[in-house]
Design a protein that fits this description.
Helix content: 25-40%
CATH superfamily of the largest domain: Thiamin diphosphate (ThDP)-binding fold, Pyr/PP domains
Shape: globular
Radius of gyration: 24 Å
CATH architecture of the largest domain: 3-Layer(aba) Sandwich
Strand content: 15-25%
Largest sheet: 6 strands, parallel
CATH class of the largest domain: Alpha Beta
Number of helices: 23
Mean pLDDT: 95
Low-confidence stretches: none
Length: 571
């Protein structure tokens, strides 16, 4: 045991967790901790320009690296500003540990105790309880080693998620004998990892009998590093693979069995074929409304096998025939081992022929938009330029859906987007976090002008901290997705969506010390991207697109997958 201050214990615990970077903003309630960080060069602190962006950067870091991201803020408004980023990580199962400062829990002057509405006091434990996997508030310094060990364990095991640690100022300044443990046990917390053999047997029996199997592979495949196992099973069964937004990249989208994205803005091939499936193998996905559409019309004739490490997701939205609560990688391995002795790899079937036919038809339908500066063409051109392992983050809205539909992802952890919460402004700070995690990899943020306006101040962070990313702003001077809905379903009654032609994004970038350019043709776009990904400073590429550009295919809200529309004329 070693005697040290609570702040010193926090930093020591972070080093033991191999934390290399913290995204945060200092404030009065965390000054003792930052004073210790001052003399800890092995932990890099990156100062965000808004606490929400610190959380998004930690989120992007976690998704790109597979390691927990760490963010930090002071008490009161600093803590509450983290909440959107924490909620975003919670919805998308990203492992982050968020530290917040807090007023004294115990002090000689009792007027500074928690609960007395001291300056910059907020009940961040109460506020974040619905959007964290767990949260802690160690009131004494001696509690810190155990608390931090538990926090990182919970954030990174089972179904990952954000954990918040609220740090009263007295817990940072007190000294105590500290005991750091190598392992941790938490009563009542024991994620189920190994699949039940009987459930695996039932799943295998269904798959062997299946004539039209489809695999729905979600973000859990990426989290569990199960992409190789997914690929072997798909090829063994000759089963096509479709992914919700969170699963994009877990299966190479240039593979003959890839159907691309499923859901509200999924590919027509995935939407048509999933309705024909007789067995659906769903892995690490929560069957969100954006994936299924109208629930009672989703896979009406299919037997459903659902693999998920979180038992709460089984049967929550969609009825399941074979539930398997376990780690995706372990379960797919067990299924493959059982299948491989009973089924010949690459066996041809009528289903394989049908899949090829539908994909070819869909490819013809999605070959439009070949004019310069049409978003589908821009996404395809970007794919030609970027190396296979380049990381693409997106904002939220039309830009996100164009990227999901037309930018092919080949590897896991190379497509980072806000799925469940749909947080505008997420992509740029997330791309900064991803670049910190993977400094030798090109990182591109595909943005809309509406989203980029919300967090553009992080240009200062990227420039000062020397974190070069490329931002492509698809600029239509409007909140594009909302405008699309108003155009299609509200008789073009555009209400509160016009953003105007300000700012000049190229000049804005230069004002921060970044590079900025506006392009007017596909040739100029290609040249600008090639230059940007080699630059040592962040580059913003402003790409003007039409005010009334639509994202198709789409499924209107409340409709089932059968209600997919592929043009405005179909309404």
């Amino acid at each position: 045991m070693t005697k040290m201050s609570g702040a010193q214990a926090i930093v020591e615990a972070l080093k033991r967790q191999k934390v290399e970077v913290i995204f945060g903003i200092v404030g009065g309630a965390v000054l003792p901790l930052y004073d210790v960080l001052y003399e800890t060069p092995e932990i890099r602190h990156i100062m965000a320009r808004h606490e929400q962006c610190a959380a998004h950067a930690a989120d992007g870091y976690a998704r790109a690296s597979g390691r927990p991201g760490v963010c930090m803020a002071t008490s009161g408004p600093g803590a509450t500003n983290l909440v959107t980023g924490i909620a975003n990580a919670y919805m998308d199962s990203a492992p982050i540990v968020a530290f917040t400062g807090q007023v004294n829990a115990f002090a000689v002057n009792s007027s500074y105790m928690i609960g007395r509405d001291a300056f910059q006091e907020a009940d961040i434990i109460g506020i974040t309880t619905p959007v964290t996997k767990c949260n802690f508030q160690p009131k004494r310094a001696s509690e810190i080693p155990k608390t931090l060990k538990q926090a990182f364990h919970i954030a990174t095991t089972g179904r990952p998620g954000p954990v918040l640690v609220d740090l009263p100022k007295n817990a940072q300044t007190e000294t105590a004998e500290m005991k750091f443990r190598d392992s941790v046990r938490i009563r009542g917390y024991k994620p189920k990892i190994d699949p039940h053999p009987f459930q695996v047997k039932k799943a295998v029996e269904l798959l062997l009998k299946s004539e039209r199997p489809i695999i729905l592979a979600g973000g859990g495949v990426i989290i569990s590093n199960a992409s190789p196992e997914l690929l072997t099973i798909a090829e063994l069964l000759m089963a096509p693979v479709t992914t919700p937004l969170m699963g994009k990249g877990c299966f190479p989208e240039n593979h003959p069995l890839s159907l691309g994205n499923i859901g509200m803005h999924g590919t027509s091939a995935s939407t048509k074929l999933i309705l024909e499936a007789d067995v659906l193998l769903a892995v690490g996905t929560r069957f969100s409304d954006r994936t299924t559409g109208k629930l009672d019309e989703f896979c009406p004739d299919a037997k459903i096998i659902h693999i998920d490490i979180d038992s709460a997701e089984i049967g929550k939205n969609v009825g399941v025939d074979v539930p398997i609560v376990a780690d995706a990688k372990k379960t797919l391995t067990a299924i493959y081992q059982s299948l491989t002795s009973k089924l010949q790899k690459g066996k041809s079937s009528q289903w394989a022929k049908r899949v090829r036919e539908v994909k070819e038809q869909a490819r013809d339908e999605m070959s439009g938009g070949e004019k310069d500066l049409k978003p589908p063409r821009l996404m395809k051109e970007l794919r030609k330029i970027l190396p296979n392992d380049a990381i693409v983050a997106t904002e939220v809205g039309q830009n996100q859906m164009w990227a999901a539909l037309y930018f092919m992802s080949y590897k896991p952890r190379t497509f980072i987007s806000s799925g469940g919460l749909g947080t505008m402004g997420f992509g740029f700070p997330a791309s900064i976090g991803a670049k910190v995690a993977c400094p030798d990899t090109p990182v591109v943020d595909i943005a809309g002008d509406g989203s980029f306006r919300m967090t553009e101040q992080e240009l200062a962070c990227s420039v000062i901290e020397k974190i070069p990313v490329t931002v492509i702003v698809l600029n239509n001077s409007v909140l594009g997705m909302v405008a699309q809905w108003q155009r299609l379903f509200y008789g073009r009654r555009y209400s509160a969506v016009d953003l105007g032609n300000v700012p000049d994004f190229a000049k804005l970038a230069k004002a921060y010390g970044a590079e900025g350019t506006r392009v007017g043709s596909l040739k100029e776009f290609s040249k600008a991207v090639k230059k940007a990904i080699k630059s040592e400073v962040t580059t913003v590429i402003d790409v003007p697109i039409g005010y009334e550009e639509n994202v198709f295919p789409m499924i209107p809200a409340g409709a089932g997958l059968k209600g997919m529309i592929e043009s405005e004329e179909e309404l």
